[in-house]
Amino acid sequence: MIKSILLGMVMVSMAMANITLSQAQSKKIGITTTTVHRVQGEAMGPFIGSLDYSDQGSGKYLLSSEATVVELIKQTGDRVTKGEPICTIASSELLSSRYAWIEVNNQLKIAQAYAKKDQKLYHEGVISERESQKSSLEVMSLQTKRAEITNRFRFAGADQEPKGGMLFTIRATRSGIIAHAPMKAGEKITPFTPYLTIANPAALSAYIKIPPKLIRFITKGAPVMDKGGEHIGSVSAISSSVDRMNNSALAIATLTKPKESYRAGTSSEFFIASPSGASWILLPRVSVTKYQGKDICFVKTATGFAPRTIKIQQLFQTSVAVEPSGLHEGDKVVIDGLMNLKGMLSGMGFE
């Protein structure tokens, strides 16, 4: 029989006293810890929110005149890398822009040659500074026109060189996931309306429906938690009106730590912290246990572990919010091995 390890590895002078354990001893009896976090205010909810890709890190493609989709290479939901072809479109606007770019570029080359010559003549004292500046201003004007035309292709995501006739390849200007794209060949592209969006799959926003009577308690910057109580983002905008269709206001949350299970187009439950509430500490549910009729957790110390009596304020699916008395953000609490530590508090040995 294995001898009791209690007396050799732990010193407990009285109930609820500190428990002295070395790192090796803690590992031997299966103790593991996790870091706790602070949440601000009383958590309200759960609220239902729909998920969508955030405009942050997204790129939208648009044209200033009508065009037609000729070929689809990628579709909504596909992942793309920068430079990868997505579709082919027919656009008279882009064809005209291509001809205009060639003409302006040729004019620019001539103007740059004249400007260079005028600068030389000015330094030789042949012409005045004002005369030399005229050619420099012409160069600047043509450079602006060329940049304007180039931006038409950039906004459309199109190659500047046509495939043939007025057909142009549309490419990904960034890596990401296609959040919106044409559905089929032959589809018309509406002027000044984004016809293609490439989003950052890690940048999600939650559009949370708030009952009208609670909207006054929601503030910009308020922490947002998932149904497990974990802090995953904050409120970035709040609507000033109520939607008559569903009798709810809208709070938009930017999710800085979205769950892997979150997908654009789906919905989930969210909690929002009220600024009127106190500051709480968020503990994993598995770190909380009962001892002598009280809720306690064990906090890691320099020499072992210390039991802390806690007051639970709100229960979540996988976490509990407790009063911060005796606890601090960054503390490490025990999540495995609680029974062994409770036994040590009671003066029990472990075989």
**What percentage of the residues does DSSP assign to strands (E)?**
35-45%
CATH superfamily of the largest domain: RNA polymerase II/Efflux pump adaptor protein, barrel-sandwich hybrid domain
Largest sheet: 6 strands, antiparallel, barrel
Shape: elongated
Instruction: Give the second-level CATH assignment, the architecture of the largest domain.
Output: Beta Barrel
Assign the CATH topology of the largest domain.
OB fold (Dihydrolipoamide Acetyltransferase, E2P)
User: Structural class of the secondary structure composition?
Assistant: alpha+beta
Segments where pLDDT lies below 50 for 5+ residues?
1-15
Strand order of the largest sheet: 3-12-15-14-13-16
* Percent range of helical residues: 10-25%
* Count of helical regions: 5
Number of separate structural domains: 3
Q: Tell me, what is the CATH class of the largest domain?
A: Mainly Beta
SSE topology string: HEHEEEEEEHHEEEEEEEEEEEEEEEH
Rounded average pLDDT? 86
Kindly describe this structure.
This protein is an alpha+beta fold. It has three domains: 6-42 and 279-345, conserved putative lor/sdh protein from methanococcus maripaludis s2 fold, CATH 2.40.420.20; 43-56 and 201-273, Elongation Factor Tu (Ef-tu), domain 3; 60-199, OB fold (Dihydrolipoamide Acetyltransferase, E2P) (Beta Barrel). Helix content is 22%, strand content 37%. The protein has five helices and 22 strands. The chain has helices at residues 6-9, 23-28, 92-123, 129-156, 338-345, and strands at 19-20, 32-35, 37-53, 59-61, 67-72, 79-80, 85-90, 167-171, 176-180, 188-189, 196-199, 204-210, 223-226, 231-238, 249-255, 267-284, 289-291, 294-300, 304-309, 312-315, 319-322, 332-336. A six-stranded antiparallel β-barrel has the order 3-12-15-14-13-16. A four-stranded antiparallel β-sheet has the order 1-19-18-17, covered by helices on one side. It has a four-stranded antiparallel β-sheet with strand order 4-11-9-6. Helix 3 (92-123) runs antiparallel to helix 4 (129-156). The longest helix is centred in the N-terminal third of the chain and has 32 residues, at 92-123. It starts with 5 loop residues before the first helix and ends in a 6-residue tail after the last helix.
